[in-house]
Amino acid sequence: MEMAELLVQEGVVANLKASSKKQALQELSQQAAELTGLPDRTIFDVLLQREKLGTTGIGRGIAIPHGKLNQLERLHGVFARLPKAIDFDAIDSQPVDLIFLLLAPESAGADHLKALARISRLLRDDSVCAKLRGSEDPAAIYALLTVSTATPAA
Fold it and tell me: What is the pLDDT of residues 98-129, one digit of tens each?
């Protein structure tokens, strides 16, 4: 699963202005709604349901909120960089400034898990994260996210 299959350049938000986890999820839901054609409230509700199961803040300033929607036909991603990190209830209690939202069809099964693994692997790379944090250009961020996935799967 290549990152370019999940993410389009319009799905990159280089300076997400959010002061809370809820606000970040709302903003990302609106962005995802534009890409998927689904109502932003539907997306937001799915993300909140998932967060109730446990935080998607995976540590080191990174969160990967995700959910499944039966109205989707394929996987969709939205990446956001926050200029000011926010509390996301992350597992390491550190604030989050990089968020990769993943939405999948209900029927995605293994593809959903493979995509989550791919995103997690990419964002575990400290040099990639440093470059993401240092860029405010959506095109450069998109290129970094999609070019970096050319490495073989671990």
Answer: 999 999 999 988 999 999 999 999 999 999 99
Domains of the chain: 3-148 (3.40.930.10)
Task: Name the token pair of 108.
Answer: 């995605």
End-to-end CA distance of the chain: 12
The per-residue pLDDT for 2 is 84
Tell me the catalytic residues: 66
d(CA 35, CA 8) in angstroms, rounded, equals 9
The phi, psi pair for 20, rounded to 5°, reads -150, 165
Per DSSP, the residues of 37-100 read: -S-HHHHHHHHHHHHHHS--EEETTEE--EEEETT-SS-EEEEEEEEEEE----TT---EEEEE
Q: Which amino acid is at 137?
A: D
CA–CA dist 129, 132 (Å, integer): 5
List pLDDT tens digits, range 63-74. Answer: 999 999 999 999
Q: Which of the 8 DSSP states describes residue 124?
A: T
Residue type, 141: I
